[in-house]
Amino acid sequence: MTLIERTAYPKFKQLPDPKELAELYTPTETEIKFVKSRTKSHSGFLCFMVMLKSFQRLGYFPHPECVPIAVIKHLRSYLKLQDWIKAIPSERQRYNYENAIREYLGVKQYDKPAQKLIAIAIATSAEVKNHPADLINVAIEELVKERYELPAFSTLDRLVGHIRASVNDFPGAKHPDIEHPQLGLFAYYLTYLILKFDSKLHI
Predict the structure, then answer these.
(1) What is the pLDDT of residues 35-87, one digit of tens each?
(2) Where are the alpha helices (DSSP H) in 39-152?
(3) What are the extents of the domains in the chain?
(4) Who contacts 54 (Cβ-Cβ below 8 Å, separation ≥6)?
(5) In a 3-state reduction of DSSP, which class is residue 182?
(6) Do residues 92 and 99 make contact, with C-beta atoms less than 8 angstroms apart?
(7) Which residue from 32, 94, 157, 195 puts its CA 20 to 30 A from 130's CA?
């Protein structure tokens, strides 16, 4: 498995300093109004805001228990909420808040079209790059550019691994599921990889 530290995959800094907290995790008045309009309790307000600011920082939704305590304390203090207000949403709340945040930020959930998009980008880059970390970075850049939520790091690492293996094992013979070999070798090659991913990988 590729070390996440060698890639551009975003992750929390466990001990952010006050400047980082203020710059990265302080909500705007517009964000506060939005979150208040979607919640009915202090706990829901804090949970939603923690999820929103975490997503803005990372580009994906971390598990609630992975959010640094410093971030939760900063938001709780800034929003003038009591210390006993929890920041762990229920499963139903998480589902509803995630959908609302995607809509608010104009971000699409990672899906099969996104997988195909980065499969092509990775396969194209694999002609000149071979290090897994570099190829993961290519995928991240493409997803961010196209306004997609990032999948789990393991999903990207597994996808890159399959593509690199396919690059090495790519057959010259015609694949039985490809109907138009006249598209050219490279187009054929990419189509072959995508067909292979659809049958082997799960989002």
Answers:
(1) 999 999 999 999 999 999 999 999 999 999 999 999 999 999 999 999 999 99
(2) 42-58, 69-78, 91-105, 112-125, 132-145
(3) 4-105, 112-200
(4) 12, 61, 62, 67, 71
(5) helix
(6) no
(7) 195
